[in-house]
Input
Amino acid sequence: MPIDAAKALAAGPRTGEISWTAKDVLLYHLGIGAGTPATDPGELRYTLESRLHVLPSFATVAGAGAPGVIGALSMPGVEVDLARVLHGGQSLTLHRPLPAEGTATVTDRITAVYDKGGAAVLVMRTAAADADGPLWTGDARIHVRGEGGWGGDRGPSARRGAPAGEPDRILDLAVREDQALLYRLSGDWNPLHADPGFAERAGFERPVLHGLCTYGMTLKAVVDTLLGGDVTRVRAYATRFAGVVYPGETLRIRMWCGDGEVRVAVGAVERGDAPVLADTTVEHS
Output
């Protein structure tokens, strides 16, 4: 079996060093759509180095290395075809605000392998710390089609259910035609997001937007709309990737305000509000 659950779970952590500069942060922000209008003071927080605030979801690309969903495929006990891999979900816990430039030690390990019958789900945990202590902890859920069925633990359900009542805010965001091409420059070179032939082999009509790009766009929308543009208020952020986004589409972001959290649902307007992000929560101060 290409996934050896026992071997993957028994493997020791993989540790390395990453670093990033303000230029990396600026590129990431542009990749998730920041900078429109270009002279808006709210947008300049993301696009001008002299007043730069780091959106917490930058943690998913810091160091410009392979994201957790790709990095997990090189862990012991995991040998699968990239064309059968999907990013199922992502969570982040922020231990303190991210600096605009920094160096950190990152530790990765597989913390769970679940048997969903027709697929396997891996959980790749990434913890980052610098000289001042912990920075963030993130979990990537990796869905591998056709690798389940060995009788293993199915794992917990990631579904929380839809929020009750009408949303407090609704925001429509346009996805540029070239957005995936720009976003991939932050380190995710998966050809699914750029190569039409590879996308077709993976079962899609054309290249799709990175799930983590939608993830970043959505967090920015919540911060700007409900948290006064203050990125330091974000404590944790989690989502389940419920469907794909094609470059050129429009995201409809629905937000429900709660006590210390915002519940969010995201759909693709042009495809009948087809679900894109579900079970999404932003915890904040």
